[in-house]
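In this supplementary section we document a worked example of the pipeline. Step one takes a protein sequence of length 272 as its only input; no multiple sequence alignment statistics are reported here. Step two produces a three-dimensional model, which step three serialises into C-alpha cells for compact storage. The input and output of this example are shown verbatim.
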Amino acid sequence: MTAKQIEGNVAIIGGGKMGEAILAGLLASSVKPERVYVVEKFGERAEYLKRTYGVTLADYAEAFGAASTIVLAVKPQDIVPMLASLGNDVTAGHLLVSIAAGVTTAALQSALPQGVPVIRAMPNTPALVGKGMTAIAEGSHVRPEHWETAEALFDAVGQVVRVEESQIDAVTAISGSGPAYFFLMVEALTEAGVHLGLPRALAAQLASVTAVGAAAMLDAGTASPAQLRESVTSPGGTTAAALRAFDEAGMRHAVYAAAEAAYRRSRELGAR
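The serialised model returned by step three reads:
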C-alpha cells in the first residue's frame, strides 16, 4: 500500500512536527500538493508549510469541503472542542484519522454527527525521517477502504500495523514513547564516554553511530535481539562485564517499570 492509492483530497488539521511529517510523506509518495489542504492557526507556521510544500492553506470549512480524508494532528486537549464546533462541516462521507494521544474513538465520536468513520493512530517521532512506527485502531463505521486509506497515510512515513483500541495504551508505552528511551541510552553512553576521558564530541559520535548501526542490524531481521546481543558477547570479555553490570543495576526491571508508567499515564489521559 502506498500513499498514491489514497482517493480524493487530504486535509491535515494542525501543521506541527507530526502533521508536517505526514504531509512530507504524502508528497514523497506522489500525492500532488494540490490535493492537500492544511489548517494551521499560527500564521508564520502556515506560510512556511505553504512555501515549502506548495499545499493549500484553508480554514475548517474549506478543508472539510474539499477533502474526504481528514488527519487530526492537533493537541489532545483541543481536539474534541474543535470537532464539536464543526457542525455540518463534517459528514459520514469523511474519514477522520486522529493522532491525538490519549483521546479515544468514543470521545471523538461523541463530538461528531452519527455515522462518521474514525480511526485512531499512534505514530512516533521517527516518522519525521520516514522511519516511523504507527499503530491504527478503528472506531465505529469503519469500512475496508477506510483501513486502506489510513494504512496508506502512515506507510508514507514508515511502517503501520492494525491493533485493537484496547492495545493502544501499550503501543504508546512501547513505540509511541519508545524513541525517548533510546535517546536516553545514547545520552547516558555519551556521558559515560566523557567520564572515561573521551572528548564529548567523540563520545557522542561513538554512541549515536553505534545506536544507528545496531538499529540497522535489527532492521535487517536476520537475527533476534537476543541472538545479536549474544554475537557481541564473548565469554569473560568486556561486553559480558558490561552486561553483568546492567543486570546488577536492574536494567531490565527499570525498562519494565518505565513502560508500565507510560502505559498507566496513557490510560489516565484517555480517561479524562
